[in-house]
Design goal:
globular; single chain; about 40% helix; alpha/beta; 11 helices; five-stranded parallel β-sheet; Rossmann fold
């Protein structure tokens, strides 16, 4: 693997697992199929070089057990909390890493039900904290922030933009990612199964059963500002669509 690795992060329930699975369909990219939490963990050393070496060794222990197809040139790891370790990550990798951060309409995030949970999964405070931090990196040259809504409603446009950022070609395998991805199951997927792209969960928050939950978010002054920031970024992301 001679190309820079890819790390994915962002608030939970914004499509980080889906993004990892789609990228794995690309013949040159291998996405590790589970969250390792390695790159957002505490740094043991003061030296970024030593921390990078330690973390790479820890991650390669996972990789060595995987069936990685011939032709793979870069690896990808997805842990939502990577977003909290970006400063450390860039010190350790310098220019040798690309980051994809996911965002999503907060009203859909806080009303999203995780397949393994009975109640709402993402708290109001977590959405505000994680997404605010994500958007603070919007101008970083090695970070691309991707709206979940763009991925699900303008799939080809969005994936071409992502792969252009990564320096990879848009290929047929990505269009048919459910067929070519090695990440076919994940706890974050409903039914634990990778499915085709769908916008069914976009604006789910409008369902009457979520009224009280949505009100908790929209009545929060910080969230009001953040929802506008997310929507404005989405418009800018799709300006050439």
């Amino acid at each position: 693997m001679d190309q820079s690795p890819i790390l994915i992060g962002g608030c939970g329930r914004t499509g980080t697992s889906l993004m990892s699975a789609i990228l794995d369909a690309h013949p040159e990219i291998f996405s590790y199929p589970a969250e390792t939490n390695i790159f957002e963990s505490d740094r043991m050393y003061k030296s970024p070089r030593l921390n990078r070496f330690r973390n790479k060794v820890r991650f390669y222990r996972f990789l060595i057990l995987q069936d990685i197809r011939k032709g793979t040139r870069r690896w990808c790891e997805k842990t939502p909390n990577n977003v909290f370790a970006l400063e450390h990550i860039f010190k350790e990798f310098k220019k040798g890493v690309k980051i994809i951060l996911m965002i999503r309409d907060g009203r859909d995030v806080v009303t999203s039900l995780h397949p393994l949970r009975k109640d709402y999964y993402i708290s109001i405070n977590r959405y505000i904290e994680d997404t605010s931090l994500t958007l603070d990196y919007r101008d970083h040259k090695d970070i691309l922030i991707v709206p979940y809504e763009s991925l699900t409603t303008r799939f080809e446009y969005t994936m071409k933009k992502i792969l252009d950022f990564l320096g990879n070609d848009f290929v047929e395998q990505v269009k048919e990612y459910t067929k070519f991805s090695g990440v076919q199951s994940h706890d974050a997927f409903h039914g634990n199964k990778l499915t085709g792209i769908s916008s069914d969960s976009v604006e789910r928050w409008k369902q009457d059963k979520h009224r009280d939950r949505v009100a908790m978010l929209t009545e929060n002054s910080e969230a009001q500002v953040l929802l506008k920031r997310v929507e404005q970024y989405k418009k800018e992301f799709e300006k050439d669509a």
